[in-house]
Write a structure and sequence with these properties.
Elements: E1 37-47, E2 53-63, H1 69-72, E3 74-80, E4 84-94, E5 100-102, E6 108-112, E7 120-122, E8 125-131, E9 140-149, E10 159-163, E11 170-180, E12 186-190, E13 194-201, E14 204-211, E15 232-236, H2 241-252, H3 260-269, H4 276-290, E16 292-293, E17 295-297, H5 308-314, E18 316-317, H6 319-332, E19 338-342, E20 361-366, E21 371-373, E22 393-398, E23 401-406, E24 416-425, E25 431-439, H7 442-457, H8 459-469, E26 474-480, E27 489-497, E28 508-510, E29 537-538, E30 542-552, E31 558-560, E32 565-568, E33 572-581, E34 584-593, E35 599-600, H9 604-619, E36 622-626, E37 658-659, E38 684-692, E39 697-702, E40 716-721, E41 726-736, E42 752-762, E43 768-777, E44 783-793, E45 799-800, E46 806-807
Parallel strand pairs: 1-11, 7-17, 16-18, 24-30, 32-37, 38-44
Antiparallel strand pairs: 1-2, 2-9, 3-8, 4-5, 4-9, 6-8, 10-15, 11-14, 12-15, 13-14, 19-20, 19-22, 20-21, 22-23, 24-25, 25-27, 26-27, 28-36, 29-35, 30-34, 31-36, 32-33, 33-34, 39-42, 40-43, 41-42, 43-44, 45-46
Helix pairs in contact: 3-6, 4-6, 5-6, 7-8
Length: 808
């Protein structure tokens, strides 16, 4: 969704408009142990030769927790007036002792249903509300409904789909489907737990579908749609998606006829433009500016568009209406187009048999330019889709027929974001600055969406709210530089912060980042990290760059630059460079996601987690300050003592490099990128340890202690070289510090502090020399590598000192 791109959007500013999502019936799963309720479902669907049908279904909801009472005690059943007829046969609350408390007729209410969107209206969508009486934990809510399918949105066709996600606790389900054998009704079950028993009784074919109970599993955040991964029941008279496309073509293509008015308008839009692709881009821009999105559905209007002239006269329409008018305008200029049916959500598959359950949006394909265009996404440039429309299976429809295809996968160089920020820190610590944000592709869409929100709220109010949301209150304003639909979208801002920097002679200080509108490098593209991920998740390709310069007034202490980073994995590249020039701290950060498709398998999560932690730490604008004269090299950060091996007293290393194996595609050079820093390596500290064989032993205690002896944050440890004859564990623990008497933290040595413990366990019976290397990243941004030469000796040759560390 477009809103996922926005950094920390404040309440009241709003986000990009939500796009249509699939809405499917979801019977679903089991799991009585943790679930708040248990559901059983039984139904019978009879499909007749004329493709009409009757379904009688009974649902039972057993209440297992108080939290389930409110949402379940008012059941809602939707139907389409004129196309369907709904009758509630019975409904009652079954008490734990077996008594039945019926639902009174006055508590069964039929009303207009909500469309679910600000600009979508379904005038014939109705909703039956059944209000159950006297509901307590242990009761069972029971309702039986009969639904008559009088006619389909596609005349002469019948289709249905049920999904059974494990996040809905279905204890059992049984569905019987009967249809004439001659109808050739396609019935298919997918996924584990669903079975289909087929038998022929005379001229009738009967399918008995049952769902085996499975463990209840709450929905995993950020996962692909249940339609891509959960058991489903699909029923259809369509032989294929091509046949479905042809049915849509029969209804939709005649609506895109070219009239003299449409020809005149197309000529006016393209006046003075000779290039055909530029003509198409001009028509696309006109559509996005002049035809607003409004969906008004009645019966077949759910899949059949209005004709192009009606859309033009009303200056409004839904996705298929806008695609129809744009197709007619293109045709008036001799530019061919195909209407495209697609799923606009987190579903990336198109399972057979064909139903409309997985197709909820219409866009266009222009074969002359091999380009997809979506006139519904008003903030997008020509040829740029919503993030969730990339790498999707589609049905393309033209006069020549219907074909299955796939939208292109995202490319990093086509979806870019670059922010430049300059901040001045006055002698009193007060800060003011300005930024310029530029975005292409989906980042351009997000910036334009935010620009519209700024216009609605007001520039100064929007800036004030954005600064407050970033916990850096102040005042400011926005300037929307590029208001059209050509990339890049550009927004500038200026700001003044209310609170100044509280600079100290030493100690960590957070430097504000201004008021960026979009996610910073490393955010959005690969989604949020989720430990133990089990399911595939949407991921996007793109490039994010942040350049920041902070200039300090004379006399102020200067920060120590963070460690430079160069991380390369098969999924992403992260580069950062920090330096001091005169009185200015210069920061350059770049994150490039180069995933090849828009679904990432769960196995990717553990492979990138540690590297993404490094990215997150390196993105933190927390710096150590000391007294530094202008033009001089930075002093080392305050000493962070280690129990046995303190950090070196020399200057802090400025460059580090971490690499990951995997097929690495060459990144396209960025003409605006700063020259890469020299590939220096972190300084390596040497440490020797002796441990007894066949025992676990703490070999180091690493910590970050403030002058008041507090430990607000802990160092981050990465194992660079694993032991070959043992195991190295990284654990949180406590221990004694070892500061020298001249250090202001000397008093901290008298009691234990929090820190990180390295524990080594040699393999059974191993005696000899072992080698281990780790990288230590301190909260200030300072980093070192530490190599341990570990001698494993027989127990009788090792003595133990009181602090627990083994020595000869």
């Amino acid at each position: 969704m477009l809103a996922g791109l926005l950094a920390t959007m404040v309440a009241g500013l709003g986000t990009a408009p939500a796009l249509a999502q699939a809405s499917l019936p979801a019977p679903a799963q089991p799991a009585m142990a943790q679930a708040p309720f248990a559901m059983t479902y039984s139904g019978r669907i009879v499909v007749r030769a004329d493709r009409t049908a009757t379904e009688v279904s009974t649902k039972r909801f057993k209440i297992l927790a108080p939290g389930a009472i409110q949402p379940l005690s008012q059941q809602r059943v939707a139907f389409i007036e004129g196309m369907q007829k709904l009758e509630t046969i019975e409904a009652y609350t079954e008490k734990a002792d077996g008594r039945k408390v019926p639902v009174a007729p006055a508590s069964i209410i039929t009303r207009d249903a909500s469309s679910g969107g600000e600009a979508s209206f379904t005038r014939d969508q109705k909703e039956r509300i059944i209000i159950f009486p006297d509901v307590e934990v242990g009761d069972t809510l029971v309702m039986t409904n009969r639904a008559e399918e009088l006619r389909s949105v596609f005349p002469g066709q019948f289709f249905d789909a049920d999904i059974f996600p494990r996040s809905v606790p279905v204890a059992s389900a049984r569905i019987v489907i009967e249809a004439p054998i001659a109808l050739e009704l396609k019935v298919k079950t997918t996924g584990a737990g669903l079975t289909d028993q087929v038998e022929d009784v005379g001229a009738i074919r009967r399918h008995t579908i049952t769902l085996a109970p499975r463990a209840y599993v709450p929905e995993e955040p950020g996962a692909v749609s249940p339609m891509d991964r959960e058991p489903m029941l699909l029923v259809s008279t369509f032989k294929s998606y091509q046949e479905l496309g042809l049915a849509y073509r029969a209804e939709a293509l005649p609506k895109a006829f070219v009239t003299p008015e449409i020809t005149a308008l197309a000529n006016e839009i393209a006046k003075g433009i000779d290039d055909r692709k530029a003509q198409a881009a001009a028509i696309d821009a006109w559509m996005k500016k002049n035809i607003r999105y409004v969906a008004l559905y009645v019966a077949s209007g759910r899949v059949v568009p209005n004709d192009a002239m009606t859309v033009l006269r009303n200056k409004l329409g839904d996705c298929k209406d806008k695609a129809t008018l744009m197709s007619a305008l293109l045709a008036a200029k001799g530019i061919a187009s195909e209407e495209v049916l697609i799923n606009l959500g987190n579903a990336y598959t198109l399972p057979e048999p064909a139903t409309m359950a997985f197709l909820n949006h219409a866009i266009l394909y222009l074969p002359e330019f091999d380009l997809y265009a979506d006139p519904t996404v008003s903030p997008s440039a020509f040829g740029v889709l919503a993030p969730e429309a990339y790498d999707k299976p589609v049905v393309r429809v033209s006069a020549a027929g219907a074909t299955l295809a796939r939208t292109p996968a995202m490319k990093p160089q086509e979806h870019t974001y670059h922010i430049r920020t300059q901040i001045n820190v006055g002698v009193d610590g007060r800060m003011s600055g300005r930024s310029e944000e530029a975005g292409t592709g989906v980042f351009g869409v997000a910036l334009r969406s935010f620009g519209a929100a700024v216009q609605n709220l007001g520039s100064e109010a929007a800036a004030q709210r954005q600064l407050q949301s970033l916990n850096t209150p102040g005042t400011g304003s926005y300037e929307i530089v590029n208001t059209g639909t050509k990339d890049p979208a550009v927004i500038r801002n200026a700001f003044s912060l209310q609170e100044g920097l509280k600079l100290q002679a030493s100690g960590p200080v957070y430097i504000p980042i201004g008021m960026p509108l979009l996610a910073r490098p490393g955010g959005f593209l690969l989604g949020a990290r989720l430990n133990g991920r089990k399911l595939a998740f949407p991921c996007y390709a793109g490039s994010q760059r942040e350049d920041m310069e902070v200039t300090f007034a004379p006399g102020l202490p200067m920060p120590t630059p963070s460690v430079n980073r160069n991380i390369e994995t098969a999924a992403f590249i992260y580069r950062s460079a920090f330096s001091i020039e005169g009185r200015t701290l210069i920061m350059r950060r770049e994150f490039i996601s180069r995933v090849g498709s828009q679904t990432c398998e769960p196995e990717l999560e553990p492979r990138i987690t540690e590297d993404m932690k490094l990215v997150s730490l390196n993105m933190g604008n927390v710096f150590q300050f000391g007294t530094i004269a202008a033009g001089n090299p930075p002093s080392p950060p305050p000493v962070v003592a280690n129990q046995t091996t303190p950090p070196p007293s020399g200057g802090q290393p400025q460059n580090g490099q971490v690499s990951r194996p995997g097929p690495v595609a060459p990144a396209r050079p960025n003409p605006h990128a700063a020259p890469p820093a020299a590939p220096n390596h972190l300084q390596i500290q040497e440490a020797a340890r002796v441990v007894p064989s066949d025992q676990k032993r703490r070999i180091d205690f690493i910590y970050w202690v403030q002058p008041d002896c507090s430990t607000p944050d802990l160092p981050s440890i990465r194992i660079l070289e694993q032991p070959r004859n043992g195991k190295l564990a990284i654990e949180r623990g406590t221990g004694f510090t070892n500061f020298q008497q001249s250090n202001p933290r000397f008093e901290c040595n008298k009691h234990k502090s929090d820190g990180v413990v390295l524990v080594f366990e040699p393999n059974a019976h191993f005696v000899g020399i072992e080698s281990v290397m780790v990288e230590i990243l301190y909260p200030s941004g300072a980093a070192v590598k530490r190599h341990y030469a570990i001698e494993v000796k027989a127990v009788e040759s090792v003595s133990i000192v009181p602090n627990g560390n083994p020595v000869n």
